[in-house]
Amino acid sequence: MCEPCTSDALLEAVRGLRVAEPDLGFKPLLAKLREQQPDLGAATKEVRVALTALKAESEAAKAAAAAPP
User: Fold this and answer.
1) How is residue 68 annotated by DSSP?
2) Do residues 10 and 42 make contact, with C-beta atoms less than 8 angstroms apart?
3) Mean pLDDT of the chain
4) What letter does residue 3 receive in the DSSP assignment?
């Protein structure tokens, strides 16, 4: 068993929900994810890891955009 592994499918599903509903809290996001895609087997830990990864991506993109050419 791997440390919190986040599949690409789960990451993309979380990303899609975040884009569609950016103000959705963690628990509603998790519930909606489980409802829409039960086959992903989204567990609390995996979704938290996915959200952390998306936040890091977002911050890296902001930093790159702010950097002088």
Assistant:
1) -
2) yes
3) 87
4) S
Q: Which of 58, 19, 26, 20 is nearest to 42 (CA)?
A: 26
Q: Quick one: tokens of 46?
A: 């995996």
Residue 12, CA distances (Å) to 29, 56, 65 in order:
13, 15, 22
| C-beta neighbour count of 22 within 10 angstroms | 7
What interhelical angle do 44-66 and 8-20 show, nearest 10?
Answer: 70
Cα-to-chain-centroid distance, residue 33: 10
Nearest partner of 14 among 64, 4, 60, 28, judged by Cα: 28
> What is the rounded CA–CA span in Å between residue 6 and residue 2?
10
Q: Do the beta carbons of residue 54 and residue 11 sit within 8 Å?
A: yes
pLDDT tens-digit readout, 6-23? 688 999 999 999 999 999
